[in-house]
Amino acid sequence: MIAVYPGSFDPITLGHLDIIERGSRLFGRLIVVVMRNPSKTPLFPVHQRVAQIQQATQHLPNVEVDTFDGLTVTYARMQGAKVLLRGLRVLSDFEKELQMAHTNKTLAEDIETFFLATSSEYSFLSSSLVKEIAKFGGPVDHLVPSAVALDICQCYAKTPPTASPQTAMEPAPTPASTERRAESVE
């Protein structure tokens, strides 16, 4: 049976990867489809998200990665899929996902939505959370595949996760010390 796992995956997290790995054991063919969400401004372009997912799932022979701009049920029909795979983290996800499942059922009665609860260690994790942590210089290498962590660091021009901390002799400048130096120069 063919299943489609749609999402924006911006970026793919270890929670997404958990759903993909478990879904690949349940379905003969799993297509991870990167959808464009017009209400979100992506960190990565679609082609880069596809490449990130391909790299993270290369050990799963029955997983394919694709992209589509349109209704998920339209894509599923084009692929001959009978299942939409959706991950659930928390109760609020269920409300939104159930509404979407019912809506999809009105559009395509022959396609079922299959909910898979995320493993408990990833129940807090979202792409938005990863981006927020990275934006403020926090480490994300424990939340996303390692190659994705490097891509995120490059986007935010932060030190890569494997870099060593600064030595005590060279303290990092703080905004206050930078302002004081600027005032003394004037």
Report on this structure.
- The protein has a five-stranded parallel sheet, with helices on both faces.
- The radius of gyration is 20 Å and the shape is globular.
- It has seven helices and five strands; from the N terminus they run βαβαβαβαβααα.
- The chain has helices at residues 14-26, 46-56, 72-79, 91-107, 127-135, 146-155, 175-185; strands spanning 2-7, 29-35, 63-68, 83-88, 112-117.
- β4 (83-88), α4 (91-107) and β5 (112-117) form a beta-alpha-beta unit.
- The protein is of the alpha/beta class and 186 residues long.
Determine the fraction of residues in helical runs and give it as a percent range.
40-55%
Number of helices: 7
Q: Kindly, what is the distance between the CA atoms of the first and last residues, rounded to a whole number of angstroms?
A: 71 Å
The general outline is globular
**Major sheet strand order:** 3-2-1-4-5
Rg estimate, integer Å: 20 Å
List the helices and strands and how they pair.
Layout: E1 2-7, H1 14-26, E2 29-35, H2 46-56, E3 63-68, H3 72-79, E4 83-88, H4 91-107, E5 112-117, H5 127-135, H6 146-155, H7 175-185
Parallel strand pairs: 1-2, 1-4, 2-3, 4-5
Give short descriptive properties of this protein.
5 strands, globular, single chain, alpha/beta, five-stranded parallel β-sheet, 186 residues, 17% strand
Summarize the structure.
Helix content is about 40%, strand content about 15%.
